[in-house]
Amino acid sequence: MTPVTILQTFDSAFSVRFSTMNTMFQHINQKHYLYALGLVVPWCIYRWYKGSRRVTKKEDKYVYITGCDSGFGNLLARHLDKQGFNVIAACYTEKGEEELKKITSDRLATLHLDVADSKSVEKVAALIKTLVGPKGLWAVVNNAGIALPSGPTDWMTIYDYKNMLAVNLCGVIDVTLSVLPLIKKAKGRVVNVASVFGRVSAFGGPYCVSKFGVESFNDSLRLNMAPFGIKVACIEPGFFKTNVTDTVAMKNNLRQLWKRLPQDVKEDYGPDYLQASIDMLEQRFNMLTDGNLMKVVYCMEHAISAVYPQTRYSAGWDAKFFWLPAAYLPTSIADRLFRGNAPPFKPKV
């Protein structure tokens, strides 16, 4: 037998063996896919069934909601009122109270509340204690919040940060602590409205800072209250068309911030930066904002009325498929992504 013949024989044998092993691995992989599918489908059905169960005796349960003048809070108050809950709707303005009373049942009670004022928070908590009696409070929804001022960090002052943190973070903490003993009685719920920008900081200013704080408070509260039977949930909406994302207000905010800047900071950014920021803001908001606010309201309602609520709710397609995945990117890649979507300019040397 010649060397060439020997090599051909070995090559033929290896080819057959390799082909057999490849077929075997393909068969095993197909089995693995079927096993995985067999596990995923029952799990999805179980999760759907578990999430579909709702609490009973809604007519005996009181729900306290902040920020009910407009937006998510207003829609949630009306939605829960229709479902039979006893809603305590806290509004910042008298107009908000009056308009909400006109379109809801007699069960719904409205109260004036400034979440940044501890005296106002204490006063409302005392009224709620009298209202709910020994049954306690089933749920509090910390929905009140503001989004302005917003802009580059070096356009801000410490007072801009303090004012927003007083509402978005300290207000959430103050309201929660004021009624926590009542929630313990009912073994109820705390629902905190944060944002996807509590998971990823895509722009400057105090808004992301405040929402990161809400996320942290939410997590620590959830761990501390679990032994008492209290469930704590966090709502993380994406971009929705509310007063918070009103483009007219946002553009006016940028103009006001620019106007008060020292001349040297304006020169750092250049004369065209303001208009470029306004144009990009309008373009991005028109592209991303979702007009269906009920996507967020349904998440809130599930956190309140489900027997087994989730710990987190991501509302909106942009939140699920862009912002939250972006939060898990390596920092260098995320930074490049967000800088690439910022208004272009050449800093002054």
From TrEMBL:
SUPFAM superfamilies: NAD(P)-binding Rossmann-fold domains (SSF51735)
Keyword annotations of the record: Oxidoreductase
Oxidoreductase is among the record's keywords: yes
Domain of life: Eukaryota
Entry-linked Gene3D superfamilies: NAD(P)-binding Rossmann-like Domain
GO molecular function: oxidoreductase activity
Example GO biological process: steroid metabolic process
UniProt family annotation: Belongs to the short-chain dehydrogenases/reductases (SDR) family.
Listed name of the protein: Retinol dehydrogenase 7-like
Species name: Gymnodraco acuticeps (Antarctic dragonfish)
Gene transcribed to yield this protein: LOC117538344
